[in-house]
Amino acid sequence: MKYFRKIMRCYFFTFVGLCRSIGMTAPKSNKKSRMSHIFSVIDGQELERQRLSRELHDGIGQSMVAIKMKLESLGYIPEPEIKPQLEGIRRQFDQIIDEIRRITTDLMPPVLEEFGLVIALFNLCEDTGKHSSVKIRFEHNVSTNDWNRKIQTYLYRIVQEALNNIIKHSNADQSFVKLMYDHDFIYLSIQDNGKGFRPHDTGREGGHGLHNMQERVKLLGGTLDLKTASGKGTLIQIKVPRF
Question: Cβ contacts of residue 121 below 8 Å, gap of 6+?
């Protein structure tokens, strides 16, 4: 009960801080819109935590349990059989290390911090293409790396979300990611040749991913245009201010 109260107090003060940040003198319609954005971001963060929890429990957690059981069984098997068992355990540890690297890259890819958005997107498209049946092409005209961290992180997350939806739901075999900019705006487009969907079908698979993309674009002060139809693929076009 004491722990629960602490959690609720933390959520309360976070909520109060967010309320203050939107400005108490703002018009009611403005406040309602901003509050909707805030709650959408909170919902998106909660969904991300749930996904991460499942991956840790079902993936790494179960692998560690299996390794523990194998190690405990070593005392009951003939000595000649121990070496092959140890080799199997070593391979499992290698898989766990790869899984941890994948999860940490999903949370915040080191390449984004060190080299910026273009290199991070190139690596994301290349790695996603290698581990799926979708051929992904990346094109850009970016010659600068001075965009603020929030813009770079949000755009990376948007592409990550879009490619995830394409792999899981589109039945596409080709995708095209394009990042361009001019003096005032950044333009991002993600296109696939998949089965498409009905935009107003809120119950469709991947709906949360699309909603998260829309909210991130709004928080950057930009616009998102979605073009899709059954059997005709999907095109997402995003425009956000550079500064």
Answer: 138, 140, 155, 156, 159, 177, 179
